[in-house]
Design goal:
It is a single chain. By secondary structure, the protein is mostly beta strands. The chain is 0% helix and 56% strand. The chain has a domain of 113 residues: 7 Propeller (Methylamine Dehydrogenase, Chain H), CATH 2.130.10.10. It is built from no helices and 28 strands. The N terminus is likely disordered.
Length: 306
């Protein structure tokens, strides 16, 4: 049997916890594009900006009427999209160094579970309970198209780096890629045995990462729609996955209370961050890969590379 050798052998990344903050249960979180800011969405209906240096809330945005399930920065880092279980997608703008509500720019016929901004910042995608992915214009909030084909809740959606394709993950156990020129489903990827909760595109557009309720993290060929690797190690549902900016590493988090760092070339788990005491709903890399965010029922944590 061929032995799998991690690409990072001899220099496996190590991370330590820097801070943790608990104000409520975290459902989503993200670094700003320049890596200087952290925002998180909570079950208490708020979005909070957390000071990256000391891990304390410095600003609270409170316009959603229910849990904030998803958020995404626009490429300029000055605007933010948030989606919630109140069926709404809201656009926030930075004025006088603070975030202010711009307007409601879209939504779903049911809870919104995912939002994603296009690489050029002129469009965004939303998905949710109504089994449909919607694409909208920015900043107008006009509906451009509906992508239909899933047969259950759509939990996660992402743009390809070229902005011409999208990928979605659903409770129907499938992943679909889409042409945004005409709304066609390009590929349907099957392999997960339970609902697929999270999906991400690599920055080169060649691979897709998914995480599901079957405890599996899978790496896919984006063009051919075939599974390249199944990464095994979680012992419970996987709620969130993310690519490192260099495309060589992946992150995952789930209801086994752990965050796992993967070498994607070999499928080997390089590191398990085991500080959480409850479900991990979201994981994210900073743009420079020096920090990792993880958030869940016990709050938000920042990890720094050693």
């Amino acid at each position: 049997m061929k032995q799998l050798v991690p690409a990072y052998l001899g220099a496996a990344p190590r991370y330590r916890e820097v801070w943790r903050v608990y104000t409520n249960k975290v459902r989503c979180a993200a670094f700003s594009p320049d890596g200087t800011r952290v925002l998180a969405g909570f079950e208490d209906h708020t979005v909070q900006e957390i000071c990256l240096m000391i891990g304390r809330p410095v600003r609270t945005l409170a316009e959603h009427a229910k849990t904030v399930t998803s958020l995404a920065f626009l490429p300029d880092g000055k605007k933010l999209l948030t989606g919630g279980e109140d069926w709404k997608v809201r656009l926030w703008e930075t004025r006088d160094s603070a975030m202010h509500l711009g307007k409601t720019v879209g939504g779903q016929l049911g809870a919104v579970y995912g939002v994603a901004c296009s690489p050029d910042g002129k469009r965004f995608l939303s998905c949710g309970l109504d089994e449909t992915i919607m694409e909208w214009s920015l900043p107008e909030g006009e509906r451009l198209r509906a992508l239909k084909g899933h047969k259950a809740n759509v939990f996660s959606v992402a743009y390809a780096p070229d902005g011409r394709r999208a990928v979605s993950a659903s409770a129907d156990k499938t992943i679909k890629t889409w042409s945004l020129a005409d709304g066609r489903c390009l590929k349907t990827m099957e392999g997960h045995k339970q609902p697929v909760h999270s999906v991400a595109y690599a920055l080169d557009g060649q691979t897709i990462l998914s995480g599901g309720w079957d405890s599996a993290v899978k790496l896919w060929d984006a063009e051919r729609g075939i599974c390249l690797k199944t990464l095994k190690g979680h012992t419970g549902l996987v709620y969130s996955v993310a690519f490192a900016p260099d495309g060589k590493l992946g992150l995952s988090g789930g209801d086994d209370n752990t965050v796992k760092l993967w070498d994607l070339a070999s499928g080997v788990c390089l590191l398990t961050l085991a500080g959480h005491s409850h479900h991990v709903w979201v994981v994210a890399f900073s743009p420079d890969m020096r920090h990792i965010l993880s958030g869940g029922n016990d709050g938000l944590r920042l990890w720094a590379s050693l």
